[in-house]
Amino acid sequence: MTQQVIHTDGLRRRRPTHAVAVRWGARTVTIGGDAPVVVQSMTNTPTADVEATYAQTVALARAGSELVRLTVNTPEAARAVVELREKLDRAGIWVPLVGDFHYNGHKLLADVPECAEALSKYRINPGNVGKGAKGEENFAMMIETAKRTGAAVRIGVNGGSLDQALLARMMDENAAKGNLLTPQAVLREALVESAVSSADAAVRLGLPADRIVLSAKVSAVPDLLAVYRRLSERCRYALHLGLTEAGIGSKGIVASAAALACLLEDGIGDTIRVSLTPAPGSPRTEEVVVAQEILQSMGIRAFAPMVTSCPGCGRTSSDLFQRLAASTQAFLRERAPAWRERAPGFESMTVAVMGCVVNGPGESRAADIGISLPGAGESPVAPVYVRGEKVASLKGPDMERDFQDMIEKFVLSTYGAR
After folding, report:
1. Strand 247-248 relative to strand 238-241, pairing
2. Does 19-298 match 306-415 in CATH topology?
3. Percentage of the chain with pLDDT > 90?
4. For 361-404, how does the pLDDT look when each residue is reduced to its tens digit (9 = 90+)?
5. Annotated binding site
6. Sorting pLDDT into bands at 50, 70 and 90, what band is 6?
7. Separation of alpha carbons 45 and 70, rounded Å
8. Which of 229, 236, 233, 158 is nearest to 190 (CA)?
């Protein structure tokens, strides 16, 4: 169980959107309306490799991805979706699966109807369904399938795969008006037009507006802000946010946080994904953690306690507080799934790990539970505070384990009896 925290200062008001229910079995994830902003992610394994895709889907779901998207690009991948869904169900993992379709989605959904039934949501890119009348026919086939299966649909436009015929037409119209807009502004408007007109076409085909989510993703922060602000003016469809091809490491994290935070503060966005290029050997779950921390740092939702810790300075005598801060954050995330079942409400708990006497005691007292480690020249004892009261002093090689034990007891005693 997670909780949503809404600002009370009047600055943030969620943009009114249709509430889209994405269902599988006992699990319903609502996107839009008054629902919390939803975190989602996507596997990067070959979907036809069921074991690898299953392992990554489980890891993403356990990390907190509330929807998991899969590449469905071949008949083998489509058939694997069915086996994957069955395997997840047997394990009691009810996370809804989203099929990511490009070019041949209409054919795969028709040829492997079990895949269409196993997916809770289809992602359709209007730029990749075909050209002219054939494209309209292919799009209509996918919408008809969604109507039959009850699946939701994300109509996802991307800057790198925009319908070139639409873009050329809008460029010509702009030229005929004396080039009132720059080429970049026309491109942005074309992204919005593609998304909204495709959604409206789906509604005309009989798909309810409360089964549609829109996205119009680009890789530059200013473009993303402009496109989504315009998109939010044009429609009331639920919106999926994400900076596509955000990049690797700090570049991808910073760019995604900058873009998503601005839009979320404007009340724009019902579901988000942070599209990070994973560093070699790093877990795919990193993008889930970053998305959660963006929402949590803005006070929108709480997923797991976050550690307040100092950056260190000449007063800190060793890397002990750095190691303890890292291990404490890892411990909190590791224990979160169990606490979610046994101690609802723990997500908003605050934990402090500080490195010296200057701000250490004060920050530790201000947290629900905090520890102030000794700095240079200080007594080698670390006082622990629980909600402002000093309750223990820790020292020696077992300090990390002892502090974790105290956190565990605090969580269960404070939140577990509810």
Report:
1. unpaired
2. no
3. 87
4. 999 999 999 999 998 888 889 999 999 999 999 999 999 999 99
5. 310, 313, 356, 363
6. very low
7. 9
8. 158
Give 10-38 pLDDT, tens digit per residue. 345 688 999 999 999 888 999 999 999 99
Rounded to whole angstroms, the Cα distance separating 3 from 299 reads: 11
CB 272 within 8 A of CB 39: yes
The torsion region of residue 137 among left (phi > 0), alpha (psi -120 to 50) and beta comes to: alpha
User: What's phi and psi for 346, nearest 5 deg?
Assistant: -65, -20
User: CA Rg, the chain, in Å?
Assistant: 24
Q: Give the domain ranges of the chain.
A: 19-298, 306-415
From CA 363, how far away is CA 345, in angstroms rounded? 22
Which residues are part of a known binding site for [4Fe-4S] cluster? 310, 313, 356, 363
Q: What is the pTM of this model?
A: 0.92
Quickly tell me which residue has 């954050």 as its tokens.
329
Distance CA 22, CA 120 (A): 6
The mean predicted confidence, pLDDT, of the chain is 93
- What topology does CATH give the domain 19-298? TIM Barrel (3.20.20)
Candidates 236, 238, 154; CA nearest to 202 is: 154
Residue 247 falls in which region: left (phi positive, over 0), alpha (psi -120 to 50) or beta: left
d(CA 14, CA 403): 39
Q: What is the pLDDT of residues 152-205, one digit of tens each?
A: 999 999 999 999 999 999 999 999 999 999 999 999 999 999 999 999 999 999
Look at the domain 306-415 and name its fold. Answer: Sulfite Reductase Hemoprotein; domain 1 (3.30.413)
In this structure, are residues 213 and 20 in contact, taking their beta carbons and an 8 Å threshold?
yes
